[in-house]
Design brief:
The structure holds 2 protein chains of 2 kinds. Chain A has 8 helices and 21 strands. By secondary structure, chain A is α+β, with helices and mostly antiparallel strands. Chain A has 2 domains: 232 residues, 3-Layer(aba) Sandwich (Rossmann fold), CATH 3.40.50.300; 108 residues, OB fold (Dihydrolipoamide Acetyltransferase, E2P) (Beta Barrel). Chain A is elongated. Chain B has a single domain, classed as MetI-like (MetI-like fold, Orthogonal Bundle), CATH 1.10.3720.10. Chain B has 12 helices and no strands. The longest helix of chain B is centred in the first third of the chain and has 44 residues. Classes of the chains: A alpha+beta, B mainly alpha. At the A-B interface, strand 6 and helix 2 of A face helix 8 and helix 9 of B.
Chain lengths: 349, 297
């Protein structure tokens, strides 16, 4: 079955008044693939998901599930199952009744239904909780029941609508790993919406970075991180320092026109541009010697973040920060070298 | 601390814990007992008094009035008519109020204030003023007749004044706002995503209503129903002002016994039957409520 398309979006468009929420989005999810829609709030990722689930109507384009067009069908006739941010468990039904709901609607026979409820609760490790009401469960347990409820109906595609964003950090990390494990075991097809890049990177086979209703880039997490298609993707994924500079007559200036002591291996063309560097890859002072790109900057202040010290430096009006274990032996006010390799820098105009 | 003193202290703590809720309720309890309990007890006593010689009442003890109440067709018919009218109008009120509340709940919030304002209007006007309003609306030269005529739905002017229908509409109008607000508050406690989740799992709208919305709002429906039923059973002004002369409700007859016939024991007996009847209906609706009254934990 590999290689078959579970879900296909073709130039999907959705507007709310004058706002274009989803702008010509095309995306194909293969059977067994886990694709994440990643983007800031208002980027259209949730709207896209709601279009697939049938909760919003399409303005243009087509949606196909297993090759069949579904965009004219109401949600209850689409073979999708959504895991909502709030869980959306039926509070008047027990855990078992919640999981049974979709099966009853699909008229699954009694013995099979019981078998599938048992299976689904096994998968999310909630056996023994059958007779509890959602009000008696913790946040993480609720989300696991929601997952079991969706898995039980074996939909063509699972839709995750930021299911972990309401949970606290430890639980989020734990459930993230659990969803990843489940996907490795069960190979379900899924679209996962999140604004948390850690989640996106850790779980996905492919990540689609969305901005202003469009997909800016889609690809494997490593590709998104190391070969960003544009400035938005670069700045949105991972931490970065932005240096707005102007090159002219062999010299480098900051915005206000002050000269900057910047040495670059490959000098970009003259004019204004924005230099981006990953702070985690920056080397300071003695560690920077021998690196092809260097900047002289003054230590402005230092933050202690636990496992590292974060040095905030200034060169003219440029601000840059770098993480270090604190062994460089320099303090506030010292002027030191900041160095980095070519691949840790990007230039956008 | 020795074992013995521990148990003594523990016992005292437990007793105090048991007492605390009662102490907290005490002020409210006193008010309820003095202002509602005592008059009801007084009325109960009054209903057994004697009545002769055109005097308001003569102290004594007799079941005569209760017997009279259930044997005289005048009274039994009134009980039956009142129960019928109240049931019909309460059921209709709950139906209309439910639809109205669901609409306001589902609509975007910018419509909400408008709807709530509309629902508040009848509460700002006294029942008497509302009755005067209906007097402009239902008669032959009233608004309704005029509107129907100009729409071409009828050819001759009609009057719906002094009909059971007018009484029915009047009662709904008075109870609807309460019903609406009770139901809206219940709906507001429900996560709207539940409807989407239900549809998502394959339930068509009607099934979603039966499986999700109705069970979650059932308590509200019962409360709204008892609220309007209690009101319509006891009310006196609206049905007698809008209904036909032949519409003798319990409220009307109690008033007549009390003020017209100066028969206080009879009026009290009638009132007791009304109170007990309403209490019975409330107890019945109570049993229909789910054990877990609140799911919004």
């Amino acid at each position: 079955m590999a290689g078959e398309t579970a879900l296909d979006l073709e130039s999907v468009r959705r507007t709310f008044g004058s706002v274009v929420a989803v702008d010509n989005v095309s995306l194909a999810v293969e059977r067994g693939e886990f694709v994440t829609l990643l983007g800031p709030s208002g980027s259209g990722k949730t709207s896209t998901l709601r279009l697939i689930g049938g909760f919003e109507e399409l303005d243009a384009g087509a949606i196909r599930i297993n090759g069949e067009r579904v965009d004219h069908l109401p949600p209850y006739q689409r073979d999708t199952a959504t895991i909502f941010q709030s869980g959306a468990l039926f509070p008047h039904k027990t855990v078992a009744e919640n999981v049974a709901y979709g099966l009853r609607m699909r008229k699954v026979a009694r013995p099979e239904m019981e078998e599938r409820i048992r299976q689904s609760l096994d998968i999310v490790r909630l056996r023994g909780f059958e007779d509890r009401y959602p009000g008696q469960l913790s946040g993480g347990q609720k989300q696991r029941v929601a997952l079991a409820r969706s898995l039980a109906v074996r939909p063509a595609i699972l839709l995750f609508d930021e299911p972990l964003s309401a949970l606290d950090l430890a639980l989020r990390l734990q459930l993230r790993a659990e969803i990843k494990r489940l996907h490795d075991e069960l190979k379900f097809s899924a679209i996962y919406v999140t604004h948390d890049q850690g989640e996106a990177m850790a779980m996905s086979i492919r990540v689609a970075v969305m901005n202003k209703g469009r997909i800016e880039q889609i690809g494997r997490p490593e590709a998104i991180f190391h070969e960003p298609a544009n400035e938005f993707v670069y700045t949105f994924i991972g931490e970065s320092c932005c240096l707005p500079v102007r090159f002219g007559g062999g010299q480098t200036f900051d915005k206000s026109g002050e000269g900057i002591d910047l040495t670059l291996k490959v000098r970009p063309a003259e004019g204004e541009c924005r230099l981006y560097i990953r702070p985690s890859r920056l080397k300071l002072a003695g560690e920077a010697t021998g690196l092809p790109n260097r900047l002289k900057a003054k230590v402005h202040f230092i933050e202690f973040l636990g496992d590292v010290f974060r040095y905030h430096l200034k060169a003219g009006s440029l601000e840059i920060f770098a993480d270090n274990d604190g062994s460089i032996g320099h303090g506030i006010g010292d002027i030191i070298n900041v160095g980095w390799k070519n691949q840790d820098m990007k230039v956008f105009r | 601390m020795s074992e013995v003193t521990y148990f003594v202290v523990r016992k005292r703590q437990l007793r105090r814990r048991k007492l605390t809720p009662w102490l907290l309720m005490l002020p409210a309890l006193v008010i309820v007992l003095i202002f509602f309990g005592l008059p009801t007890l007084y009325m109960l006593r009054m209903s057994f008094n004697l009545h002769f010689d055109q005097r308001l009442y003569v102290p004594g003890f007799t079941f005569e009035h209760y017997g009279n109440l259930f044997s005289n067709p005048l009274f039994t018919n009134a009980i039956w008519a009142t129960v019928k009218l109240s049931l019909m109008s309460s059921l209709s009120t709950v139906l209309i109020g439910y639809g109205f509340a669901i609409l306001v709940w589902l609509k975007p919030s910018r419509w909400r204030l408008l709807f709530i304002g509309l629902a508040l209007c009848p509460l700002l006007i006294s029942e008497i003023a509302i009755i005067f309003g209906w007097w402009m609306f239902f008669p032959k030269n009233g608004l309704l007749s005029y509107a129907l005529l100009s729409m071409g739905l009828i050819t001759d002017k009609i009057s719906l004044m002094y009909t059971e229908f007018a009484a029915f509409v009047g009662l709904i109008y008075v109870t609807l706002p309460y019903c609406f607000f009770i139901l809206l508050s219940i709906f507001d406690g429900i996560d709207k995503r539940l409807i989407e989740a239900s549809a998502d799992l394959g339930a068509p709208p009607l099934v979603t209503f039966r499986e999700v919305l109705l069970p979650l709002t059932w308590t509200g429906v019962l409360v709204a129903f008892s609220q309007s039923f209690i009101w319509t059973m006891g009310t006196y002004a609206t049905p007698s002002a809008l209904g036909p002369d032949t519409l003798w409700t319990m409220g009307y007859l109690i008033q007549e016994q009390m003020l017209g016939k100066h028969n206080w024991p009879m009026a009290s007996a009638f009132s007791m039957v009304l109170v007990l009847g309403v209490a019975l209906v409330m107890a019945l609706t109570r049993t229909q409520q789910s054990k877990r009254t609140s799911f919004h934990v």
